[in-house]
Amino acid sequence: MTGSQNGVPIHSQNGKHPLDSGHSRLNELGYKQELKRDLSVLSNFAFSFSIISVLTGVTTLYNSGLNFGGPVVLVYGWLVAGGFTMAVGLSMAEICSSYPTSGGLYYWSAKLAGHKWAPFASWITGWYNIVGQWAVTTSINFSLAQLIQVIILLSTGGKNGGGYIASKYTVLVIHGGLLLILAFINSLPISWLSFFGQLAAAWNILGVFFLFCEIILLSILYAL
Predict the structure, then answer these.
(1) Which end of the chain is least crowded, N or C, by CB within 10 Å?
(2) What are the residues whose beta carbons fall under 8 Å from the beta carbon of 84, sequence distance 6 or more?
(3) If we measure between CA atoms, which residue out of 149, 121, 170, 144 comes closest to residue 59?
(4) Residues paired with residue 13 on neighbouring β-strands, in sequence order
(5) Successive 10-residue mean pLDDT values, the chain, 224 residues
(6) 3-class SS at 10?
(7) Pairwise CA distance, residues 170 & 165, whole Å
(8) End-to-end CA distance of the chain, in Å?
(9) Other beta carbons less than 10 A from residue 174's beta carbon
């Protein structure tokens, strides 16, 4: 034992290194840490940043925002939506720090709902989460399939130059292939997933940087 936190002893691993606050909190909740923490802080950030995917959001929704809302929506919409998103994120971070369990949102729902409603809260939370994951994954990959269709069209001469226009069935085949590739990648060891997550984060950061530079350059040229 190397000390205590909130009146709960913090035991050491092999008598050498003290446990972190998350492990101590698990002891308070009556659990023993069994899940391996193989992801670094950088890897966790990379996964979160990749899921946000600024490039995907900009490229797929830019046209809709420009047509139905105009520049005001594109500029201030980011700020308003970002403020609400930050409020939700901070609330979830507070809950996560209070219940740092592998069950995550299912466990949180059960604890916050109380003993009577705990099973139903966990059940409905789990289904909302899995359906949301299905919707996000399939919609993003379908957008990527459409993007590949446009790339093929432009690289073969464009619409007016006799380029290849893929049918809706071809786009669905591409979509299915992308989902199979993602299924294979997600079955790889966690070290590989960490690498792909960091690669995706770097790609998004570089993409946003070059996109920002392009917008600034075009604005300067337009002003001149």
Answers:
(1) C
(2) none
(3) 144
(4) 17
(5) 41 47 67 65 77 72 78 82 90 82 79 89 91 87 88 87 88 94 89 86 85 82 78
(6) strand
(7) 10
(8) 70
(9) 20
Which residue is associated with the tokens 């139905």? 68
CB burial class (10 A; 0-12, 13-18, 19+) of residue 145?
Answer: buried
Q: What CA–CA distance (Å, rounded) separates 112 from 91?
A: 13
- CA separation for the pair 224, 105 (Å, rounded): 53
Report d(CA 54, CA 104) in Å as an integer. Answer: 25
- Residues near 113 by Cβ (< 8 Å), separated by ≥ 6? 120, 121
Distant-in-sequence, close-in-space partners of 121: CB < 8 Å, separation ≥ 6: 109, 110, 112, 113
Q: State residue 70 phi and psi, 5-degree precision.
A: 85, -175
pLDDT in tens, 18-75: 455 666 766 776 666 665 666 777 777 787 777 777 777 776 677 777 788 888 887 7
Q: Dihedral (C-alpha) 99, 97, 191, 179: value to the nearest 10 degrees?
A: 70
Tally the residues of the chain.
Answer: 224
pTM: 0.64
Whose CA is closest to 106, among 124, 86, 122, 83?
122
Element spanning 141, H or E: helix 118-155
Identify whether the C-beta of residue 1 lies closer than 8 Å to the C-beta of residue 10: yes
